[in-house]
Specification:
By secondary structure, the protein is of the alpha/beta class. The chain folds into two domains: 281 residues, 3-Layer(aba) Sandwich (Aspartate Aminotransferase, domain 2); 133 residues, Alpha-Beta Complex (Aspartate Aminotransferase, domain 1). 38% of the residues lie in helices and 13% in strands. The strands form two sheets. The protein has a seven-stranded mixed β-sheet, sandwiched between helices. Strands 8-9-12-11-10 form a five-stranded mixed β-sheet. The termini are far apart. The structure holds pyridoxal-5'-phosphate. Pyridoxal-5'-phosphate binds next to helix 4 and helix 5.
Length: 426
């Protein structure tokens, strides 16, 4: 059960398909280990000759059912859950890059990803070049080197809310023989499916809309199965040549379209271990069951709030790609015709200090280090999430020092607007 159903049906039904007499609801397989009857059965699992469960660090039925649901929603062939979005991004890159390699990345990305790629991965010997995502194909192409292994971007960047021209990025990546990896956290597959625009791998922080209730940190990597690793075998030896840690097995030969996710699971997860707990995956699955309904409400509320802010003369600027005045409106109409996400950024006349006073005056809207859950919340990136960045890096990441990030929830839009109005009037 995958591609023939529409997204709403997949949200509710994909992943767990119980057989006769099994629980209708996805069970929490709260077990580290799984029992076999003969030594031989277990040995075949360790050789990847049979598929089956033996240890939850590698695979767990609850986690796998939820991964399968997300793969179906994105239209991919396979997926792997991770314990956080950060882990998903790290694994997605590290699965095809090693010391001495390089990749190219949009500069309009989440602050945590910016640090992971620019600082921590550098310590592992993997270099990144950040590019302005709005630059021309020629300009972006200049960043590629002979050791470049992928191109990375966010569909809608957090928190700068720039909409990525995914087709342009896919064309650039493919002209250099490397895959395009897209962080699709903000729109979710309900509003955008990057594989349909040429992306090869999609990553998520499921912590955001997918969970949707701010209960569990988590991540996911989905493979479209479309990138032909063997065509560029010299670039991707980890996938296309024998893995000594699995008796000389070659992932592309043994697993075809499942090669990338199988390697991420069997090698990276085995060695690094950043799995979600089955309990968290169960909660994530509950969130996914209503993702389609919640995204609709997030987007319609955010549109109303953005229009209100734009019409208020205390507000200096509003950034929301659903506003016709927005720089990314045309791209959003192309890639996100049904809505983008619930996150808006804006600045107040009076700048940084006024922003802080405004936030302190909010009552319904809470100050939290989170976005994209059911409750409306607000954050000042320059004082919070992006504290480590210099003013120059802030601007490069598309984050103005006065920027307020407002994550519009699924309450009644009138109540959200009334709270903003009373805070503005203070
Ligand atoms: C939050 C976020 C991440 C990091 O995810 P965690 O689950 O917090 O580790 C990565 N990318 C984007 C776009 C995010 O919003």
């Amino acid at each position: 059960m995958t591609k023939e159903f529409k997204p709403e049906t997949l949200c509710v039904q994909a992943g767990w398909q119980p057989k006769k007499g099994e629980p209708r609801v996805l069970p929490i397989y709260q077990s580290t280990t799984f029992k076999y009857e003969t030594s031989e059965q277990m040995a075949r699992l360790f050789d990847l000759e049979d598929s089956g469960y033996f240890y939850t660090r590698l695979q767990n039925p609850t986690n796998d059912a939820v991964a399968a649901k997300i793969a179906a929603l994105e239209g991919g062939v396979a997926a792997m859950l991770t314990s956080s979005g950060q882990a998903a991004n790290f694994y997605a890159i590290f699965n095809i890059c090693q010391a001495g390699d390089h990749f190219v990345c949009s500069s309009a990305i989440y602050g945590g990803t910016f640090n992971l790629f620019g600082v921590t991965m550098k310590k592992l010997g993997i270099e990144v070049t950040f590019v302005n995502p709005d630059a021309s194909e020629e300009e972006i192409s200049k960043a590629f080197r002979s050791n470049t292994k992928c191109l990375f971007g966010e569909t809608i960047s957090n928190p700068s809310l720039e909409v990525l021209d995914i087709e342009k990025f896919a064309k650039i990546a493919h002209s250099h023989g490397v895959p395009l990896i897209i962080d699709n956290t903000f729109p979710t597959p309900i509003n955008c499916r990057p594989f349909e625009w040429g992306a090869d791998i999609v990553v998520h922080s499921t912590t955001k809309y997918m969970d949707g209730h701010a209960t569990c940190v988590g991540g996911c990597i989905v493979d479209s199965g479309n990138f032909d690793w063997d065509q560029f075998a010299d670039k991707f030896p980890g996938l296309c040549t024998p893995d000594e840690s699995y008796h000389g097995l070659t992932y592309t030969k043994s697993f075809g379209k499942g090669a990338y996710i199988t390697k991420a699971t069997a090698q990276l997860m085995r060695d690094l271990g950043s799995i979600p707990s089955p309990q968290n995956s169960f909660l994530l699955n509950l969130g996914l069951e209503t993702l389609h309904l919640r995204m609709r409400q997030h987007c319609s509320n955010a549109q109303k709030v953005a229009e209100y802010l734009e019409s208020n003369d205390k507000v200096a600027w509003v950034n929301y790609c659903g506003l016709p005045s927005n720089k990314y409106y045309t791209l959003a109409q192309k890639y996100l015709p049904n809505g983008s996400c619930g996150v808006i950024s804006f600045g107040l006349k009076g700048g940084r200090e006024t922003s802080i006073q405004f936030m302190d005056a909010l009552e319904l809207v809470a100050i939290v280090t989170h976005v994209a859950d059911a409750r409306t919340c607000v954050l000042h990136p320059a004082s919070h999430t992006h504290r480590q960045l210099t003013d120059e890096q802030l601007i490069e990441a598309g984050v103005r020092p006065d920027l307020i990030r407002l994550s519009v929830g699924i309450e009644n839009a009138d109540d959200i607007i009334a709270d903003i109005e009373q805070a503005l009037n203070k």
